[in-house]
Design a protein that fits this description.
It contains nine helices and eight strands. By secondary structure, the chain is an alpha+beta fold. It folds into two domains: 64 residues, Orthogonal Bundle (Arc Repressor Mutant, subunit A); 167 residues, 2-Layer Sandwich (Beta-Lactamase), CATH 3.30.450. The chain has a six-stranded antiparallel β-sheet, with helices on both faces. Strands 1-2 form a two-stranded antiparallel ribbon.
């Protein structure tokens, strides 16, 4: 049967658009860029097609070409698009003031992470005026079950012991806490409303995190605060955790989206 509205019929993707997106995503992973042949191999398209797409991206300021090194890098136009997208998010706008306050009060790098089904993406960052800072970059990703953020998300989902252990085993840890210890930490996070990671995910970094629930109690965002490991004792980390929890509760009314039907750590 022919549809009365042909616009509703599935349409094949536009190859050039798919190629451009693939190239931009790949460039975003390369701190020093790459040449056209290396990019073409990485994204699986011909060098000629890759060159034509790159030339267009350069013309639109979405990519930069360095004639001295013959390398392409991500352009400021792509960064501007990302900032515009983030700036239109009610949660990001609402979180900026409390994040700034937390960063200054606790001399920490405070992040707002969005859960995408298997990964957490940093969508906003607040830093203190301290000369020595922990380096975080908006747009960076990490496994959905890693670190304090992962523990907080797992705790908020109320998963079974087996599901939590499975999520733990899917993470590449810098210093693995052990499955039983991790499980106990997630359960403790569910009681406290905030989770803790002391150098397990990243060497020398201590982090605290608290999930932000929407009206249906489904976590889609999580707040984190990161400091250098050893700077605060247990009581100090607890104070940061309690402050994050209070901020997360205040931001809950802005988290209206539904979560994907995927447990943290799954694909």
């Amino acid at each position: 049967m022919i549809s009365a509205n042909p616009d509703r019929r599935p349409r094949p993707p536009v190859n050039s658009v798919v190629q451009a997106i693939s190239i931009l995503r790949h460039l975003g992973t390369l701190p020093e860029g790459a040449g056209v042949n290396a990019i073409a191999r990485a994204v699986g398209i011909g060098p000629s097609s890759c060159f034509n797409v790159l030339r267009t991206l350069v013309g639109e300021d979405l990519a930069i070409f360095d004639p001295a090194t013959k390398r392409y890098t991500l352009g400021l136009g792509a960064v501007d698009l990302a900032r515009r997208a983030l700036g239109g998010d009610a949660m990001v706008r609402a979180a900026r003031a409390p994040m700034d306050a937390l960063a200054e009060e606790h001399d920490a790098a405070v992040g707002l992470w969005r859960y995408t089904g298997s990964r957490l993406v940093l969508v906003a960052l607040a830093e203190s005026a301290s000369a020595t800072r922990i380096h975080l970059v908006v747009g960076q990703r990490q496994p959905g079950s890693a670190g304090a953020t992962g523990r907080a998300m797992l705790a908020a989902h109320g998963l079974s012991d087996a599901e939590i252990v499975e999520a733990y085993e899917g993470v590449r840890w810098h210093s693995a806490p052990g499955a039983s210890t991790f499980l106990a930490q997630v359960r403790r996070a569910a009681e406290l409303g905030w989770a803790l990671d002391l150098g397990n995910a990243n060497h020398g970094i201590a982090s605290v995190a608290s999930a932000i629930a929407d009206r249906g109690a489904s976590p889609r965002f999580v707040l984190s605060a990161s400091i250098f490991d050893g700077r605060e004792d247990a009581a100090g980390m607890a104070r940061i955790g309690q402050a994050l929890r209070a901020a997360a509760l205040g931001l809950g009314k802005f988290a209206h989206g539904r979560m994907p039907d995927v447990a943290p750590g799954g694909e």
